[in-house]
Amino acid sequence: MSKDKNEILQLAEQGQVIQKPQDAIKDPYILEFIGLPEHNIYSESELEQKLIDKLEHFLLELGTGFTFVARQNRISFDDKHFRIDLVFYNRILKCFVLIDLKVGELKHQDIGQMQMYVNYYDRKIKLDDEHKTIGIILCQNKSEAVVEFTLPENNTQIFASKYLTVLPSKETLIKLIESESKS
């Protein structure tokens, strides 16, 4: 069914080849293993605690090469303190990966906050031989337009990915596949 059969054959023979950050970032992430109901009200700190409790599963969901670095990592400047929800390092990409958890709709302010975190890590934390820091905002809902118009056109560092706390139904997956194949 693929339009690029050679690319699919190459993927089947070699597996996923990670050459750029986009190759390692998923959208959506399926967080069913943490045990939160689909339409329950919960806080970002509860979501974070559930992920930490199931860190091994979360690392597998993130993908290849991720290692855990910190939780609620505090950065400070100008007598102001900020906390990055989760910090990972990706051995394959050779860079830090910062994750900010958002319950609800992604806002442009969330993207600006992540840009600040990424800039800080790039300027103060990363070593000269490491690649630029990647920021992932995990949110329940996102507007592609908000992401598109908040980030620069040549963005390769900040990603907004949805998360689902339950695997979609078979019918929903079929609709998603059909809508993707029409695009």
What does this structure look like?
Strands 1-6-5-4-3-2 form a 6-stranded mixed β-sheet. It is globular. Helix 2 (44-53) crosses helix 3 (55-62). It is 36% helix and 28% strand. With 183 residues, it is α/β, with parallel strands linked by helices. It has helices at 5-14, 44-53, 55-62, 108-125, 144-150, 170-182, and strands at 29-30, 66-77, 80-90, 95-105, 134-141, 158-164. It has a single domain (18-165), classed as 3-Layer(aba) Sandwich (Trna Endonuclease, Chain: A, domain 1), CATH 3.40.1350. It contains 6 helices and 6 strands.
Helicity range = 25-40%
Major sheet summary line: 6 strands, mixed
Number of domains: 1
The helix/strand series, from N terminus to C terminus, equals HEHHEEEHEHEH
Radius of gyration: 17 Å
What is the CATH architecture term?
3-Layer(aba) Sandwich
> What name is given to the CATH topology?
Trna Endonuclease, Chain: A, domain 1
Q: Given the structure, what is the number of helices? A: 6
